[in-house]
Design brief:
With 321 residues, the chain is of the alpha/beta class. The chain has one domain: Aldolase class I (TIM Barrel), CATH 3.20.20.70. 27% of the residues lie in helices and 17% in strands. Strands 7-11-6-5-4-3-2-1-8-9-10 form an 11-stranded mixed sheet, covered by helices on one side. Helix 1 links the parallel strand 1 and strand 2. The protein is globular, with a radius of gyration of 19 Å. Bound molecules: iron/sulfur cluster (SF4).
Length: 321
């Protein structure tokens, strides 16, 4: 069985998003030679480069070239900075651009940098012009949930020339004290706004959203690995702390001389998600969204089938716009 990799090349980033999952901003350990070794020794289905803003590392383009030469599909998640290195667009199969709000003011405020929204929009337009499959990706937060934002995000993505809109429900380990968890009803309204704006469902690997839309989620656990900038391997994007850190690719004696053992650390088996909404939420470990999973089902149009690199390595939902 091949692996889907979510790979953080670096933590370096030029934004300061209030809700960032990666508070570290230092450089990682990866270089093109090590990327090549991992690819040599494993059957890799596809790679998504995320975490920090990878394109800010000078050697990242060479890593993209290596993956491209091998014919492994790859995508990059960017905050917009990729527009500074447009040659990268010729090496990738998909691009995800993080835009959380339909308007410049709130996006720049939440992302901690004036001009961030404009730069991200410019990147989407440029990628679309070059024919790269491009997705606008938003994190659902209290400030951007609700019907109107859902509707307007579809219009924005469409207007910029993106093919898809992807939504990640904010994930937290501290739901009681975390100010970034959207109210379940507002998250439900966000999804409704997206559907009412004419977006067609592509796929979801989020069992909570799957319950609301009445579809089967694509399992993301068991076939994907997250490689962190410091070499640690974890089973999924959001499971990056303590007990989930399964091995370090650069220092673990079991794999120091043989990166082919990467699959050894695929420590969780594929799960069969329960059909009932509350059980799905329990399996997903995000009980704070229980109310969302039990809200009225939203009818979706045109199930297109999940073909996007991201569906399958983290809980996320994709609509074609
Ligand atoms: S762009 Fe991503 S990595 Fe950078 S601060 Fe924002 S959330 Fe964190």
């Amino acid at each position: 069985m091949g692996l889907k990799l979510g790979w953080g090349y670096t933590w370096v980033c030029d934004l300061r998003c209030a809700f960032c999952y990666s508070p570290r901003k230092d450089r990682g350990v990866w270089c093109p030679r090590l990327v090549e070794r991992i690819l040599d020794a494993n059957e890799i289905l596809d790679v998504n480069w995320g975490t920090g803003e990878n394109v800010l590392e000078p050697s990242f383009l060479e890593a993209l070239r290596i993956v491209h030469r091998r014919g492994v599909p790859q995508s990059v998640t960017s905050n917009g900075a990729l527009v500074l290195r447009p040659e990268a667009l010729d090496l990738i199969d998909e691009l995800d651009v993080s835009i959380d709000f339909p308007d410049r003011r709130r996006h720049d405020l939440w992302r901690g940098r004036a001009g961030a929204w404009e730069r991200a929009c410019r990147l989407v337009r440029e990628a679309a012009r070059r024919g790269v499959r491009t997705t606008v990706t938003m994190v659902a937060l209290p400030a951007n949930s609700g019907y109107r934002t859902g509707y307007e995000m579809v219009e924005l993505a469409r207007g910029l020339g993106a093919e898809m809109l992807r939504i990640n429900l904010y994930f937290t380990r501290r739901p009681r004290s975390d100010p970034f968890v959207p109210e379940p009803r507002r998250a439900w309204e966000l999804l409704l706004g997206v559907v009412d704006a004419g977006a067609r469902f592509v796929g979801t690997s989020d069992p909570i959203v799957a319950a609301v839309l009445g579809v089967e989620p694509v399992p993301y656990a068991g076939r994907s690995l997250r490689i962190l900038p410091d070499g640690w391997v974890t089973p999924a994007t959001y499971l990056t702390w303590g007990p989930w850190r399964m091995a370090n690719l650069l220092s673990d004696p079991r794999i120091r001389d043989d990166t082919g053992a990467l699959r050894t650390f695929l420590g969780i088996s594929e799960r069969v998600w329960p059909r009932e909404a509350p059980e799905r939420v329990a399996v997903a470990g995000r009980d704070y969204y229980l109310e969302l999973a039990t809200m009225p089902r939203i009818s979706i149009r045109g199930v297109l089938g999940a073909s996007q690199i991201h569906v399958g390595y983290l809980p996320t939902t994709v609509f074609a716009v």
